[in-house]
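Second attempt. The first submission of protein-tyrosine-phosphatase had a stray character pasted in from the spreadsheet, which I only caught after the job came back as garbage. Lesson logged: always re-copy from the clean sequence file. Corrected sequence (156 aa) follows.
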Amino acid sequence: MIRVLFVCLGNICRSPMAEALFRDMVKKENLNDRILVDSAATSSWQIGLPPHKGTLDILKKYNISSNGLVGRPLIKEDFWKFDYIIGMDKSNIKNIYSITGKPNHPKIIRLLDLTKARKDIPDPFYTGDFEETYSLVSAGCRALLKKICREENLSY
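This time the job returned cleanly.
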């Protein structure tokens, strides 16, 4: 089983959006028996809470299930449990390095580094623009799925 973990600051906007969207992509490609998807936060502010209403609304708009999404913290042991740990911005990456104790490890990737955009995904908690976040997360998730299929010899 290939394990993918999406990480953002609070695990209520960007990372649960990426988790739900990536799960949907994996399911549509009939890879859900090969790829497990989760998300986590680098902070403890929203632990145990559902995603932000803006995230839930955008997922509903695009007919993507939000079932099972709940905020949880990133823990050191996640480094060993997941094959790909995906941060949404440079600050998330720095925090992932700190929490896991694995700075600059190749399994820790900023999502849009897999695209031509190569930039941070803005946090819609602050910008209010969940549509922009969805568009960027979608592009990053498509690139990530291609990368995983290529690296893990999965048909896509």
